[in-house]
Design a protein that fits this description.
single chain, 353 residues, alpha+beta, Alpha-Beta Plaits, 2 domains, four-stranded antiparallel β-sheet, 14 helices, 46% helix, 18% strand
């Protein structure tokens, strides 16, 4: 077991954060590789840097995978998190990489500058492209093993994902029993990369934001909401927010998304915050079936997409928080289950305590 005393407490916490972040990055990349055939088909490299090296494509899941894996130490992880263990997705990578040793082959190197959307530039050894394809193929083969699927099902059960998905889908269905037409707004609340945000600051900001929902006119005619606190490998701390408005009384979902983001950026975080408005026309166009904006209960295809894609995404497992969050700290919150006599949602003041 990792030995700590008062002199090593700071470095111990740093190591835990580093390994948890790496494990979470691996986890998320593997999930994308397995569940999204479109992302697997994206070109691995962007352009040539030299005869022997090329830039990694930041939109391919391997970009995230190799960054996280390069900082991951399995032995150290087991010492730091012996009570929680690796996710089945991380174990799948370790199993698949036994005979490839991809980290030594790719020779990952950070290059000067950024791509658009603040993606760092990384290059790899062109000679490793065959090894990368071998690893990805092996991952897909091992993922078909019934033992892996059983481990994933158990992981979903143990982390509460299965119960949360059922509960939050029912919550949305209950909202639509009261009002057949709702205006759905999705905003991601995060931070500028210029600031280093602690977990304490993050929890303070999110609690302040939810309290503000009780009094700010932006949230008039709000019927319900779902909020998920997460930590991403590249984005750090952020909140996924889905809001359900009475569409007969509230219009302009694009403008609402922008104003909510600005509230977070300027009022709640005092300039430290950033946001992404999912309701812009440009972003809506990226959905094969878009459930954002005005959605009626009888639009069955869009309703199914809201529940099976939108809600599933919000309640997904956050591997970093699974490993690092204080025991008892809630990461997922929603409004109270609606009743016919309630006209507006009751926001739980301290839902994450």
């Amino acid at each position: 077991m990792f030995n700590i005393n008062t002199n090593t407490l700071s470095s111990f916490h740093f190591l835990k954060q580093q390994q948890a972040n790496s494990a979470a990055g691996i986890n998320n990349a593997i999930v994308k590789l397995l569940n999204d055939p479109h992302k697997r088909s994206i070109a691995l490299t962007y352009s040539f840097l030299s005869e022997k090296r090329a830039y990694l494509n930041p939109y391919h899941p391997f970009y995230l995978l190799i960054q996280a894996y390069s900082m991951f130490d399995e032995v150290l992880f087991q010492q730091l998190f012996d009570d929680k263990g690796l996710s089945p997705y991380c174990r799948l990578l370790i199993q698949s990489d036994q005979f490839v040793d991809i980290r030594s082959k790719v020779e990952l190197q950070e290059e000067y500058g950024y791509w658009h959307n603040n993606y760092k530039k990384f290059s790899i050894n062109l000679g490793a492209l065959g090894d990368i394809q071998q690893l990805l193929t092996t991952l897909l083969i091992h993922a078909q093993d019934p033992a892996f699927n059983s481990a994933v099902s158990q992981y979903h059960h143990d982390t509460g994902f299965t119960d949360n998905l059922r509960e939050y889908i029912k919550y949305v269905e209950d909202l639509y029993k009261i009002n057949s037409r709702l205006l759905i707004v999705r905003v991601d609340l995060s931070y500028s990369q210029d600031f280093c945000i602690t977990d304490e600051t993050f929890y303070t900001h999110t609690s302040r934001f939810l309290k503000r929902m009780q009094s700010n006119p932006l949230f008039n005619y709000l019927e319900g909401y779902v909020a998920k606190l997460e930590h991403g490998f590249e984005r750090g701390y952020h909140v996924h927010l889905m809001l359900f408005y009475n569409s007969a009384k509230k219009r302009g979902d694009i403008h609402l998304g922008k104003m909510i983001g600005e509230l977070w950026r300027h009022d709640i975080t005092k300039g430290q915050g950033s946001y992404f408005n999912c309701n812009t026309d440009e972003h809506k166009a990226t959905y094969p079936i878009c459930f954002l904006g005005r959605l009626q209960r009888d639009e069955q295809i869009r309703m199914n997409c809201l529940k099976e894609v939108g809600i599933r995404y919000l309640v997904k497992i956050d591997e970093y928080q699974r490993l690092m969050k204080p025991y008892g700290k809630k990461l997922l919150s929603r409004g109270k289950t609606p009743m016919k006599q309630i006209k507006e949602v009751e926001v739980i003041v301290n839902p994450f305590s």
